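=== How it folds ===
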Amino acid sequence: MGIFARINVDQLIAFLFQRYTEEGGFSTAPSLPATIEDTFYITDILGLLEQLDKGLDLLSRIDAQRLSDFIRRKHDEEQSRLPLRLRYYLHRIGQRIPGVPVFSRDRFVYTKLTFENFFYLQELERVTAEARERLMPLDLAECTCKDVFHSLLLVPTPDTLPPLETITAWLRACQNGDGGFGFFPGTTSFLENSYYCLSALSLIEASPADRQRAEQFIVSCQTGAGGCARSIVGVPFPESSWHAVKIAQILG
């Protein structure tokens, strides 16, 4: 039985739509206002679920006009202070939902060029020569699994990465006895770390040290509310649920 079959999809879908607001976007919890982050996570999950199960019809339940109005309002209100991550989320929402505006070429200033921010620049078609010069080689002694994942996404040159065998061993060492992965070897398991480590391993066509335990950790993060928490004991959030579905896609 694959990991996707072990996730209660009906409960997950109910959890997600409980966060659909009158504003047109989605929120962290039913009582809170909609945010760009949660709208990205939930619309992307719904699209991923449709890809994983062709019998599902979920995105059509979203009012594209209301979502467009929400996205435009958020973009106009916060344009001058939106970090790269949120600009990328707005861009992805527009790509995912027909009729929703795609924002990708706004003016912005970056102060800290992490591997993650470089990835967003690349996706938004804003990579410059200055940005490339500021990107440092990956140092496994000073990084987290998020850095490793984003550095691999950038299709780097060999001189910016350690040998793939070294990266594979480092990622496998991030896995703990509970099946989940830490920020780096020897740290606590969380769902987002599991996503970054398993995604990075997939990019270099390597497997985790214990796939079965990894799957069990992911499944155990789903709560009775339908959404997934960061760890086996915790409160469910759209972000953690997105990590779980992305992992199901990777391992599936």
